[in-house]
Amino acid sequence: MTSENPAIVGIITGSESDMPAMQPCMDQLDDFGIPYEVKVASAHRKPQEVHTWASTAHQRGIKVIIAAAGKAAHLGGVVAAFTPDPVIAVPMKTSDLGGLDSLLSMVQMPSGVPVACVAINGAKNAAILAVQILGTGDAAKQAKIVDFKKKMAE
Question: 22, 59, 69, 101: least buried by Cβ within 10 Å?
Answer without folding.
Answer: 59
